[in-house]
Amino acid sequence: MTQRVEIEYCTRCRWLPRAAWLAQELLTTFEAELTELALKPGTGGVFVVRVNDEVVWDRREQGFPEPTAVKRVVRDRVAPGRSLGHSDG
User: CB 3.0 to 4.6 Å from 67: which of 25, 29, 34, 50, for a disulfide?
Assistant: First the structure.
């Protein structure tokens, strides 16, 4: 089963470093579960995380995510029941 994460970020806001850092965190945590992780350039202040085309985090509604919060919502979709260790606390 394909497990794809997409991080769409605003190029005008210079949020590539933030998106790349979050991508690294997700790839490290879910190296066995994810089949693809894409960085998608956008504009207009966008910073959205999608799992299999489902929006799981939107900066406009939830603010900038902490990696542990995104890891939890990604885990719930790609590896339900898996422990994230200290990130679950």
Answer: 25
pTM for the full predicted model: 0.92
Check whether 35 has a pLDDT greater than 90. yes
| Token pair for 1 | 């089963």
Cα distance between residue 77 and residue 68, in whole Å? 15
The count of C-alpha atoms lying within 13 angstroms of the C-alpha of 67, restricted to the half-sphere facing its C-beta, is 16
- Asked if residue 26 lies in contact with residue 66, where contact means CB atoms within 8 angstroms, the answer is no
| Integer Cα distance of 61 and 49 in angstroms | 12
Task: Transcribe 45-65 into DSSP letters.
Answer: S-EEEEETTEEEEEHHHH-SP
Alpha carbons 10 and 87: distance in angstroms, whole number: 27
- Per-chain mean pLDDT for the chain: 93
Residue 80 carries which side chain, given as an amino acid letter? P
